[in-house]
Protein backbone atom coordinates (compact mmCIF):
# COMPACT_ATOMS: atom_id res chain seq x y z
CA UNK A 1 0.00 0.00 0.00
CA UNK A 2 1.47 3.34 -0.98
CA UNK A 3 1.11 6.28 1.29
CA UNK A 4 1.23 9.87 0.23
CA UNK A 5 4.22 11.43 1.97
CA UNK A 6 3.09 14.97 1.14
CA UNK A 7 0.70 16.36 3.82
CA UNK A 8 -2.28 16.68 1.51
CA UNK A 9 -4.37 18.63 3.96
CA UNK A 10 -1.68 21.27 4.00
CA UNK A 11 -1.31 24.13 1.62
CA UNK A 12 1.84 22.60 0.23
CA UNK A 13 0.09 19.34 -0.78
CA UNK A 14 -2.85 21.17 -2.31
CA UNK A 15 -0.77 23.60 -4.35
CA UNK A 16 1.89 21.19 -5.62
CA UNK A 17 -0.24 19.94 -8.55
CA UNK A 18 -0.85 23.59 -9.53
CA UNK A 19 2.87 24.32 -9.48
CA UNK A 20 3.48 21.06 -11.34
CA UNK A 21 0.98 22.03 -14.04
CA UNK A 22 2.51 25.49 -14.36
CA UNK A 23 5.89 23.77 -14.93
CA UNK A 24 4.27 21.64 -17.62
CA UNK A 25 4.37 18.42 -15.56
CA UNK A 26 1.97 15.62 -16.40
CA UNK A 27 -0.10 13.78 -13.83
CA UNK A 28 2.51 10.95 -13.86
CA UNK A 29 5.37 13.31 -13.14
CA UNK A 30 3.46 15.09 -10.39
CA UNK A 31 2.63 11.64 -8.93
CA UNK A 32 6.34 10.79 -8.86
CA UNK A 33 7.25 14.11 -7.24
CA UNK A 34 4.50 13.93 -4.62
CA UNK A 35 4.63 10.11 -4.28
CA UNK A 36 0.83 10.14 -4.41
CA UNK A 37 -1.73 8.14 -6.33
CA UNK A 38 -3.09 9.20 -9.71
CA UNK A 39 -6.54 9.73 -8.14
CA UNK A 40 -5.14 12.10 -5.52
CA UNK A 41 -3.22 14.19 -8.03
CA UNK A 42 -6.12 14.21 -10.50
CA UNK A 43 -8.52 15.37 -7.76
CA UNK A 44 -6.23 18.19 -6.70
CA UNK A 45 -5.74 19.25 -10.31
CA UNK A 46 -9.51 19.20 -10.87
CA UNK A 47 -10.08 21.25 -7.71
CA UNK A 48 -7.54 23.75 -9.02
CA UNK A 49 -9.37 23.93 -12.37
CA UNK A 50 -6.53 22.29 -14.34
CA UNK A 51 -7.81 20.32 -17.28
CA UNK A 52 -5.88 17.33 -18.54
CA UNK A 53 -5.56 17.14 -22.30
CA UNK A 54 -6.63 13.67 -23.39
CA UNK A 55 -4.06 11.60 -25.30
CA UNK A 56 -4.71 9.62 -28.45
CA UNK A 57 -7.38 7.04 -27.72
CA UNK A 58 -6.44 3.39 -27.86
CA UNK A 59 -8.33 1.56 -30.55
CA UNK A 60 -11.52 -0.09 -29.42
CA UNK A 61 -11.94 -3.81 -29.91
CA UNK A 62 -9.93 -6.84 -29.00
CA UNK A 63 -6.67 -5.05 -28.44
CA UNK A 64 -8.04 -2.14 -26.42
CA UNK A 65 -6.28 -1.63 -23.10
CA UNK A 66 -7.69 -0.15 -19.92
CA UNK A 67 -5.74 3.01 -20.65
CA UNK A 68 -5.47 5.56 -23.44
CA UNK A 69 -2.44 5.42 -25.72
CA UNK A 70 0.04 8.10 -24.69
CA UNK A 71 2.44 9.40 -27.32
CA UNK A 72 5.26 11.02 -25.38
CA UNK A 73 6.22 13.95 -27.58
CA UNK A 74 4.56 16.59 -25.39
CA UNK A 75 5.83 15.19 -22.09
CA UNK A 76 8.62 16.98 -20.24
CA UNK A 77 11.20 14.68 -18.62
CA UNK A 78 11.98 14.68 -14.91
CA UNK A 79 14.39 12.65 -12.77
CA UNK A 80 14.90 12.17 -9.04
CA UNK A 81 17.83 14.08 -7.56
CA UNK A 82 21.23 12.35 -7.71
CA UNK A 83 21.18 12.25 -3.90
CA UNK A 84 17.99 10.14 -3.80
CA UNK A 85 18.81 7.03 -1.68
CA UNK A 86 17.08 4.68 -4.16
CA UNK A 87 19.86 5.39 -6.66
CA UNK A 88 22.70 4.45 -4.30
CA UNK A 89 20.80 1.61 -2.64
CA UNK A 90 19.89 0.08 -6.05
CA UNK A 91 16.15 -0.10 -5.47
CA UNK A 92 12.84 1.29 -6.61
CA UNK A 93 11.65 4.70 -5.43
CA UNK A 94 8.58 2.86 -4.08
CA UNK A 95 9.78 -0.01 -1.85
CA UNK A 96 6.27 -0.77 -0.58
CA UNK A 97 5.32 -1.93 -4.10
CA UNK A 98 7.78 -4.87 -4.01
CA UNK A 99 5.53 -7.85 -3.35
CA UNK A 100 6.47 -11.48 -2.52
CA UNK A 101 4.89 -14.07 -4.81
CA UNK A 102 2.56 -15.23 -2.02
CA UNK A 103 0.87 -11.84 -2.15
CA UNK A 104 0.06 -12.05 -5.87
CA UNK A 105 -2.64 -13.97 -7.72
CA UNK A 106 -0.69 -13.87 -11.00
CA UNK A 107 2.90 -13.03 -11.76
CA UNK A 108 2.11 -12.80 -15.46
CA UNK A 109 -0.44 -10.05 -16.05
CA UNK A 110 -2.47 -9.44 -19.22
CA UNK A 111 -1.03 -6.70 -21.42
CA UNK A 112 -4.53 -5.24 -21.33
CA UNK A 113 -3.45 -3.53 -18.14
CA UNK A 114 -0.65 -1.64 -19.86
CA UNK A 115 -1.23 1.15 -22.37
CA UNK A 116 2.20 0.49 -23.86
CA UNK A 117 1.78 -3.24 -24.38
CA UNK A 118 -1.78 -4.16 -25.38
CA UNK A 119 -3.81 -7.31 -24.86
CA UNK A 120 -3.10 -9.22 -28.06
CA UNK A 121 -0.86 -9.16 -31.12
CA UNK A 122 -2.87 -8.02 -34.14
CA UNK A 123 -0.32 -8.37 -36.95
CA UNK A 124 2.73 -10.25 -38.12
CA UNK A 125 3.96 -13.76 -37.39
CA UNK A 126 2.75 -13.62 -33.77
CA UNK A 127 -0.74 -12.46 -34.77
CA UNK A 128 -3.43 -13.64 -32.36
CA UNK A 129 -1.05 -14.26 -29.45
CA UNK A 130 -2.31 -12.88 -26.13
CA UNK A 131 0.38 -10.80 -24.40
CA UNK A 132 1.40 -11.06 -20.76
CA UNK A 133 3.81 -8.89 -18.82
CA UNK A 134 6.24 -9.52 -15.97
CA UNK A 135 7.46 -6.75 -13.67
CA UNK A 136 10.48 -7.02 -11.36
CA UNK A 137 12.09 -4.40 -9.16
CA UNK A 138 13.98 -1.78 -11.13
CA UNK A 139 17.63 -1.16 -10.19
CA UNK A 140 17.62 -4.11 -7.70
CA UNK A 141 17.81 -6.50 -10.67
CA UNK A 142 19.59 -4.21 -13.15
CA UNK A 143 23.26 -3.58 -13.93
CA UNK A 144 24.59 -0.26 -12.63
CA UNK A 145 25.81 0.33 -16.18
CA UNK A 146 22.19 0.89 -17.28
CA UNK A 147 21.90 4.20 -19.13
CA UNK A 148 18.58 4.83 -17.38
CA UNK A 149 19.76 4.22 -13.81
CA UNK A 150 18.42 7.63 -12.79
CA UNK A 151 15.85 8.22 -15.53
CA UNK A 152 14.20 4.75 -15.27
CA UNK A 153 10.56 5.03 -16.26
CA UNK A 154 9.70 3.04 -13.14
CA UNK A 155 10.20 6.38 -11.40
CA UNK A 156 6.74 7.33 -12.69
CA UNK A 157 5.15 3.91 -11.98
CA UNK A 158 4.09 4.43 -8.43
CA UNK A 159 1.21 1.94 -8.64
CA UNK A 160 2.95 -1.03 -10.30
CA UNK A 161 3.55 -4.19 -8.29
CA UNK A 162 7.18 -5.28 -8.47
CA UNK A 163 7.58 -9.04 -7.90
CA UNK A 164 10.23 -9.94 -5.33
CA UNK A 165 12.71 -12.06 -7.29
CA UNK A 166 14.30 -15.28 -6.06
CA UNK A 167 13.61 -19.05 -5.86
CA UNK A 168 9.89 -18.75 -4.93
CA UNK A 169 9.34 -16.40 -7.89
CA UNK A 170 11.15 -18.72 -10.28
CA UNK A 171 9.16 -21.75 -9.18
CA UNK A 172 5.80 -19.94 -9.52
CA UNK A 173 6.82 -18.57 -12.90
CA UNK A 174 7.31 -22.08 -14.25
CA UNK A 175 3.84 -23.11 -13.05
CA UNK A 176 2.15 -20.08 -14.61
CA UNK A 177 3.93 -20.55 -17.94
CA UNK A 178 2.84 -24.21 -17.96
CA UNK A 179 -0.77 -23.11 -17.54
CA UNK A 180 -0.49 -20.48 -20.30
CA UNK A 181 1.17 -23.02 -22.57
CA UNK A 182 -1.79 -25.36 -22.22
CA UNK A 183 -4.37 -22.55 -22.49
CA UNK A 184 -2.80 -20.98 -25.58
CA UNK A 185 -1.25 -23.83 -27.59
CA UNK A 186 -1.24 -21.62 -30.71
CA UNK A 187 1.15 -19.19 -29.04
CA UNK A 188 1.37 -16.47 -26.41
CA UNK A 189 3.83 -13.66 -25.84
CA UNK A 190 5.53 -12.50 -22.65
CA UNK A 191 6.98 -9.00 -22.37
CA UNK A 192 10.14 -9.04 -20.22
CA UNK A 193 10.51 -7.04 -18.08
CA UNK A 194 8.22 -4.03 -17.72
CA UNK A 195 10.65 -3.02 -14.96
CA UNK A 196 13.82 -4.78 -13.87
CA UNK A 197 16.19 -7.06 -15.74
CA UNK A 198 17.78 -10.52 -15.82
CA UNK A 199 19.37 -10.74 -12.39
CA UNK A 200 21.46 -13.94 -12.62
CA UNK A 201 22.89 -16.28 -15.23
CA UNK A 202 20.76 -19.05 -13.68
CA UNK A 203 17.65 -16.93 -14.29
CA UNK A 204 18.65 -16.55 -17.96
CA UNK A 205 19.13 -20.32 -18.17
CA UNK A 206 15.71 -20.78 -16.62
CA UNK A 207 14.19 -18.92 -19.57
CA UNK A 208 16.15 -21.12 -21.97
CA UNK A 209 14.59 -24.14 -20.27
CA UNK A 210 11.11 -22.56 -20.48
CA UNK A 211 11.53 -22.16 -24.25
CA UNK A 212 12.29 -25.87 -24.50
CA UNK A 213 9.43 -26.96 -22.24
CA UNK A 214 6.73 -24.59 -23.50
CA UNK A 215 6.58 -24.49 -27.31
CA UNK A 216 3.83 -21.84 -27.32
CA UNK A 217 6.00 -19.38 -25.37
CA UNK A 218 7.36 -16.34 -27.23
CA UNK A 219 9.25 -13.55 -25.48
CA UNK A 220 10.08 -9.95 -26.31
CA UNK A 221 11.56 -7.12 -24.31
CA UNK A 222 14.75 -5.29 -23.41
CA UNK A 223 17.82 -5.74 -21.27
CA UNK A 224 20.62 -3.43 -20.22
CA UNK A 225 22.92 -6.45 -19.83
CA UNK A 226 25.18 -6.60 -22.86
CA UNK A 227 28.65 -5.96 -21.49
CA UNK A 228 30.58 -9.20 -22.03
CA UNK A 229 32.48 -8.73 -18.76
CA UNK A 230 29.14 -9.47 -17.05
CA UNK A 231 28.46 -13.26 -16.85
CA UNK A 232 24.70 -12.61 -16.89
CA UNK A 233 25.10 -10.66 -20.12
CA UNK A 234 27.16 -13.46 -21.68
CA UNK A 235 24.44 -16.00 -20.86
CA UNK A 236 21.77 -13.67 -22.24
CA UNK A 237 23.66 -12.87 -25.46
CA UNK A 238 24.03 -16.60 -26.09
CA UNK A 239 20.34 -17.29 -25.58
CA UNK A 240 19.20 -14.36 -27.74
CA UNK A 241 21.54 -15.28 -30.59
CA UNK A 242 20.38 -18.89 -30.49
CA UNK A 243 16.64 -18.32 -30.01
CA UNK A 244 15.84 -14.84 -31.43
CA UNK A 245 12.76 -16.19 -33.26
CA UNK A 246 11.09 -16.85 -29.90
CA UNK A 247 13.25 -14.81 -27.56
CA UNK A 248 13.43 -11.30 -29.03
CA UNK A 249 15.22 -9.52 -26.21
CA UNK A 250 16.88 -6.30 -27.40
CA UNK A 251 20.01 -4.88 -25.81
CA UNK A 252 19.37 -1.35 -24.62
CA UNK A 253 21.92 1.17 -25.87
CA UNK A 254 24.29 -1.60 -26.91
CA UNK A 255 27.03 -0.72 -29.43
CA UNK A 256 25.36 -2.83 -32.11
CA UNK A 257 23.03 -1.97 -34.96
CA UNK A 258 21.11 -5.25 -34.58
CA UNK A 259 18.81 -6.56 -31.82
CA UNK A 260 19.43 -3.36 -29.90
CA UNK A 261 17.85 -0.06 -28.95
CA UNK A 262 19.16 3.48 -28.80
CA UNK A 263 17.96 6.20 -26.43
CA UNK A 264 17.67 9.67 -27.92
CA UNK A 265 16.49 12.95 -26.48
CA UNK A 266 14.81 14.15 -29.67
CA UNK A 267 13.69 12.48 -32.92
CA UNK A 268 16.22 14.57 -34.90
CA UNK A 269 18.95 12.50 -33.18
CA UNK A 270 17.70 9.22 -34.66
CA UNK A 271 20.63 7.27 -36.12
CA UNK A 272 20.12 6.53 -39.83
CA UNK A 273 19.85 2.79 -39.27
CA UNK A 274 17.26 3.04 -36.48
CA UNK A 275 13.49 3.38 -36.46
CA UNK A 276 11.76 5.27 -33.66
CA UNK A 277 9.18 3.30 -31.65
CA UNK A 278 5.92 4.09 -33.52
CA UNK A 279 3.86 4.03 -30.30
CA UNK A 280 5.96 6.88 -28.88
CA UNK A 281 5.15 8.93 -31.96
CA UNK A 282 1.43 8.15 -31.78
CA UNK A 283 1.57 6.15 -35.04
CA UNK A 284 0.25 2.97 -33.43
CA UNK A 285 -1.45 2.17 -30.15
CA UNK A 286 0.83 -0.32 -28.47
CA UNK A 287 3.19 -3.26 -28.95
CA UNK A 288 0.30 -5.56 -29.89
CA UNK A 289 -0.63 -3.36 -32.84
CA UNK A 290 3.01 -2.72 -33.76
CA UNK A 291 5.15 -5.83 -33.39
CA UNK A 292 8.30 -4.15 -34.68
CA UNK A 293 10.43 -5.33 -31.77
CA UNK A 294 10.20 -8.97 -32.83
CA UNK A 295 9.51 -8.46 -36.55
CA UNK A 296 12.92 -6.97 -37.31
CA UNK A 297 16.42 -7.00 -35.84
CA UNK A 298 16.81 -3.35 -36.88
CA UNK A 299 17.79 -0.98 -34.09
CA UNK A 300 14.84 0.77 -32.42
CA UNK A 301 15.10 4.31 -31.07
CA UNK A 302 13.31 5.43 -27.92
CA UNK A 303 12.91 9.08 -27.04
CA UNK A 304 13.81 9.61 -23.37
CA UNK A 305 10.81 10.70 -21.34
S1 LIG B 1 8.67 -0.54 -31.44
FE1 LIG B 1 6.60 -1.43 -31.37
S2 LIG B 1 6.87 -3.42 -30.36
FE2 LIG B 1 8.72 -2.18 -29.89
S3 LIG B 1 8.28 -1.11 -27.95
FE3 LIG B 1 7.62 0.28 -29.61
S4 LIG B 1 5.41 -0.22 -29.89
FE4 LIG B 1 6.34 -1.92 -28.75
Task: Describe the protein.
- Helix content is 28%, strand content 12%.
- It has 305 residues and is α/β, with parallel strands linked by helices.
- The strands form two sheets. An eight-stranded mixed beta sheet has the order 2-3-5-6-7-8-10-9. Strands 1-4 form a two-stranded parallel sheet.
- Helix 7 (231-243) links the parallel strand 6 and strand 7 (247-252).
- The longest helix is centred in the middle third of the chain and has 17 residues, at 167-183.
- It is globular and about 45 Å long.
- The chain starts with 10 loop residues before the first helix and ends with a strand.
- The relative contact order is 0.13.
- Mean pLDDT is 84; it is low at 1-15 and 51-60.
- The structure holds iron/sulfur cluster.
- The site of iron/sulfur cluster has 9 residues, from helix 8 and helix 9.
- The site of iron/sulfur cluster (SF4) has 9 residues, from helix 8 and helix 9.
Q: What's the total count of β strands?
A: 10
Shape call: globular
**On the 0-100 scale, what is the average pLDDT?**
84
Proportion of strand residues:
5-15%
Strand order of the largest sheet: 2-3-5-6-7-8-10-9
Q: What is the helix fraction of residues, given as a range?
A: 25-40%
- Structural classification: alpha/beta
What are the distinct ligands in this entry? iron/sulfur cluster
Uncertain parts: 1-15, 51-60
Order of helices and strands: HHHHEEEEHEHEHEEEHHE
Keywords:
single chain; 305 residues; alpha/beta; two-stranded parallel ribbon; 9 helices; 10 strands; 12% strand; disordered N terminus; binds iron/sulfur cluster
Amino acid sequence: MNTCRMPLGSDRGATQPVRGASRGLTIEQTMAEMQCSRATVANLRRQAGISDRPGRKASAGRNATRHDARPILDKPATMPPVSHPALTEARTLYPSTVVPVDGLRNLLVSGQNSWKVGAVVTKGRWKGFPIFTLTLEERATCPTSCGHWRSCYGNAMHMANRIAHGPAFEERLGHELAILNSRHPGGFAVRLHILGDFYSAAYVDLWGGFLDRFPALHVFGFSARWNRTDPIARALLGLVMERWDRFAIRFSNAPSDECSTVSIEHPVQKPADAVICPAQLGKTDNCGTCGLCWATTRRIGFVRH
